[in-house]
Amino acid sequence: MTSFWRPAATGVASVLAGVGAGELVSAFFVQNGSPVLVVGALVIDLVPAWLKEAVIAVFGTGDKAVLIVSLALVLLVGAGVAGWLEHLRPPVGRILIAVGGAVGVLAALTRSGAGLLDAIPSVITAVVGILVLGALSRMLRGTAPTRVAPSGSVTRRRFVTATSATAAGGALAVIVGQVVATGYRAAATARAAIHLPRAASTAPPIPAGASFDIAGLSPVVTPNADFYRIDTALQIPGIDPSSWRLRITGMVENEIELTFAELLKLPLEESTTTLTCVSNEVGGNLIGNATWLGYPLRHLLARAKPTAKADMVLSRSQDGWTASTPIEALTDERNAILAVGMNGQPLPLEHGYPVRMVVPGLYGYVSATKWVVELNVTRFDDITSYWTDRGWSQRGPVKLSSRIDVPAAGRQVAAGTVAVAGVAWSQHVGVSAVHVQIDGGDWQAAELADAISVDTWRQWKYAWEATKGSHTIRVRATDANGKVQTSKVADVVPDGATGLHEISVSVS
């Protein structure tokens, strides 16, 4: 009997050839139809929220890499099974590849704004995979015209050569297709050529007392390269700013269309705002603070003139993702903006280039739309958004919270005066106090750094006289209204985690 590996190899080579062909077709003809990415996006849409949160909790911003690697492993295992089944009971293996292609077609057609053309790469993937599997399987069984020696030695060598070449060619095509399809380089080149205009209204300077000089403490302004990234885009959209448009539609008296050039000519404003992901666990790092440059959304919406019954704005990303934002958060006096700059630079591609939304006081899932292309003024009871369809609450105000950065959890420190420090936040409300508790004792007041604004986090520090042994440190914050951070533990679903951050340290 033929060993398992040779039939499995026919399946793997065939599927790689098919996926490679599909990726090349997507790269050059159907940009949004990548078989790998549309299936990955479908997986993101279908997996339950608890699983998403578990992956984010373990892998953080590496969640997409984990998904892609997992999909690749499943694909290779399935391909091997298809090859084995095709050898035992043809055409079962080819039918299995056809089913995989059908999943790709379904994934492509169910994406936001998809058309029939978007399914072509998945169809090509299935057709090529089926044809190649049939040819390699016939060669393996010795029925292909390439058999020239009764001993089968030449056939075996040709089989190995053909299978290896097919697999290598397919893998290379996948790589080439991904590189070409992303449009990343073109978008990066366009971004590099952009000269942001001078702000008509600059952000207040960061106070000298806003930052403590403590090693390991999060900087008061997060560098772009360190800013967290959580979204559903497996492939960063490569948007040409010259073709970008923002449309304001729905329950408005005046629909508006805005180009990138027009946006840059408006009186842009700077503001420093902390953004937080609703997936941030207590003590987590899915939070960052940056100085943004953009145009106030309240001014654009004033031009559009929403009707009196509108209570929500559904923002839509170029890749189809949506967020539902309470209209009052976009029309009051907070610094809710269409951002084009981040910490003095054009928006990084992964953070929404060329334009994204920044809304103080709300978790990102209901406000921070990257690559934004549409604002649909509507009502909560008429339409839902990506995450509210998956069990998250309609409104996502950021919850009062705090975090210990120093010392790191589990670290050993020397006895004596030890700096305990971290950050606390209550966006659009502000933090008025932070207290630290050692080993369940009395709460002690920490020293607060100067506030930048109510929309940003504040650093804090506490001088702890540490004694030898194992100790537990907890922190809690109080907001500007006198509300004390709750100790009640709640999961991130449906509207953000609660509880007090606690660490254990050893003192020697």
Question: Which features characterize this protein?
Answer:
Sulfite Oxidase, Chain A, domain 2; Immunoglobulin-like; 508 residues; 34% helix
Summarize, please.
The protein is an alpha+beta fold and about 500 residues long.
Question: What features would you describe in this structure?
Answer:
By secondary structure, this protein is an alpha+beta fold. It has three domains: 5-182, no CATH class; 208-390, Oxidoreductase, molybdopterin-binding domain (Sulfite Oxidase, Chain A, domain 2, Alpha-Beta Complex); 401-507, Immunoglobulin-like (Sandwich). Helix content is 34%, strand content 22%. The protein contains eleven helices and 19 strands. The protein has helices at 5-28, 35-46, 49-59, 63-88, 92-109, 120-140, 153-182, 184-193, 260-265, 297-304, 327-331, and strands at 245-250, 256-259, 269-276, 287-296, 312-317, 322-326, 337-342, 345-346, 356-358, 372-378, 401-406, 412-413, 416-425, 431-438, 443-445, 447-448, 458-466, 469-479, 502-507. A five-stranded mixed sheet has the order 2-1-10-5-6. Strands 3, 4, 7, 8 and 9 form a five-stranded antiparallel sheet that branches. Strand 5 (312-317) and strand 6 (322-326) form a beta hairpin. The protein is globular, with a radius of gyration of 27 Å. The N and C termini lie far apart (65 Å). The relative contact order is 0.11.
CATH class of the largest domain: Alpha Beta
Indicate the low-confidence ranges by residue numbers: 143-149
The CATH homology group name of the largest domain: Oxidoreductase, molybdopterin-binding domain
Helix content: 25-40%
The N- and C-terminal alpha carbons lie at a distance of 65 Å
Percent of residues in beta strands? 15-25%
Structural class: alpha+beta
CATH topology of the largest domain: Sulfite Oxidase, Chain A, domain 2
| CATH second-level architecture of the largest domain | Alpha-Beta Complex
- Number of beta-strand segments: 19
User: How many separate helices?
Assistant: 11
Mean pLDDT: 92
Net shape: globular
Radius of gyration: 27 Å
Largest sheet: 5 strands, mixed
Order of helices and strands: HHHHHHHHEEHEEHEEHEEEEEEEEEEEEE
Strand order of the largest sheet: 2-1-10-5-6
Number of domains: 3
